[in-house]
Write a structure and sequence with these properties.
Layout: E1 4-6, H1 7-14, H2 18-27, E2 42-44, H3 45-60, H4 74-96, H5 103-133, H6 138-179, H7 185-189
Helix pairs in contact: 1-2, 5-6
């Protein structure tokens, strides 16, 4: 706990008017007592300073809508614009380096994965029905179903690895075609 001071003392301390401090109290500046009719407001200086810092940070980060004049903070707008430009530049760099995959490609891959898995699952009953029909032991049935689901997972995994290799080969081929622009400045220098 800091030193307990009056509204006027806090105003003098931070170079603002007591009326401005009253507005801050309405906005949530913590007080430690007083404020009744004829009783001066008491403010814990440490809590007030911490609140003022947090309040200013929120205002600068854009959590507060307006600054003192009712306008958007220019520094907040500049900061947000710079952040957006950095994000856009990073996306462009990632795209050029091949770190990004178009959403259509991702959707196609996921659809392929789902189709492979669904095909394997759909075949499960027909592969196991006749074998399971003659088994009375629940543990044996469980072991057989578990064995079959393992086979499905392995088969799906193998197909996905094959698709991943095919996709990687396609990307490599596209990269090689993109790099075949003919003799450039490097060839001329030698």
């Amino acid at each position: 706990m800091g030193v307990v001071i009056s509204k006027k003392q806090l105003a003098d301390l931070i170079g603002k008017s007591p009326r401005w401090i009253s507005k801050l109290i309405e906005d949530g500046l913590p007080t430690s007592g007083g404020g009744g009719r004829g009783v001066e407001v008491q403010i814990d200086s440490e809590a007030a300073i911490n609140w003022l810092i947090a309040h200013e940070v929120r205002r600068e980060m854009g959590d507060g809508d307006d600054d003192d004049e009712g306008l958007s903070s220019a520094s907040t707008e500049d900061r947000l614009l710079k952040r957006a430009r950095r994000e856009k530049l990073q996306i462009e760099i990632d795209r050029e380096r091949g770190r990004l995959i178009p959403s259509e490609t991702v959707a196609q891959i996921l659809t392929s994965v789902a189709a492979v898995y669904a095909t394997q699952l759909d075949a499960l009953p027909s592969r196991c029905a006749s074998q399971l029909a003659v088994i009375d032991d629940p543990a044996t049935i469980r072991a057989r179903v578990f064995e079959e689901t393992r086979r499905i997972r392995k088969s799906t995994s193998d197909r996905l690895e094959l698709r991943a290799r095919e996709f990687s080969a396609d990307v490599d081929q596209i990269d090689q075609l993109g790099g075949e622009d003919g003799a450039g400045a490097a060839a001329e220098d030698s």
